[in-house]
Design brief:
This protein has helices spanning 3-15, 38-44, 64-76, 95-128, 149-156, 163-176; strands at 50-53, 80-83, 88-90. By secondary structure, the chain is mainly alpha-helical.
Length: 185
């Protein structure tokens, strides 16, 4: 069980809230809300449910407007939203709740943009100083297909035509012949 789940369980114990289910949203905020499972989460909630999250952050929603829209949609459906780290309990759409949600969302968005900017600046500085970025050309690394290599070779041996044949040739060129004196088994 991860740290956030433990944090939520401890909060629920103190506040005497029963947790029915955990839905983990761990995918990059640059993905769609469906890929991040936000749509699934919202669909699971019914009127009078309570959604407990550790924080409103750039990890959960990508833009301030998206956070505000999500919170407003939940509150309109009479779903209570609790954020542990920001100590927010949003059960209605009063002015204070709107201001606080907007500020926290904006801070999260700004933080993500600043991290991105600092990363780009650091990479540009390293490149300008002559440091080569990325992997050296021709570097071999593990692949998610390594465990299935025998099965892939077997399937490629069936002599499939067209696009599969081209894929077979590319596969053999990159994976089946020695590269820089290293052979894959």
């Amino acid at each position: 069980m991860n740290h956030q789940n433990l944090e939520i369980l401890e909060f629920a114990r103190k506040k005497e809230i029963r947790i029915d289910e955990f839905v983990e949203i761990t995918i990059s905020s640059r993905k769609t809300s469906k890929q991040r499972r936000i749509d699934e989460l919202v669909g699971m909630l019914t009127e009078t449910d309570t959604l407990v999250v550790t924080e409103l952050s750039q990890d959960n929603c990508r833009r301030t407007a998206e956070v505000i829209a999500l919170i407003n949609a939940l509150v309109l459906r009479n779903i209570r939203v609790i954020t542990i780290k920001q100590n927010l309990d949003i059960a209605n759409q009063d002015m204070n709740s709107k201001i606080i949600v907007t500020l926290f969302s904006l801070f999260g968005e700004l933080e993500r943009d600043l991290i991105s900017l600092r990363t780009k600046e650091a990479l540009a500085a390293k490149k300008a100083s002559g440091q080569q970025l990325g992997k050296p050309k021709g570097t071999l690394q593990k692949s998610k297909f390594d465990n299935s290599l025998d099965r892939i070779k077997e399937l490629l041996g069936y002599g499939l035509s067209g696009a599969f044949k081209q894929t077979t040739e590319l596969f053999h060129r990159f994976f089946c012949k020695p590269i820089s004196g290293v052979a894959l088994k």
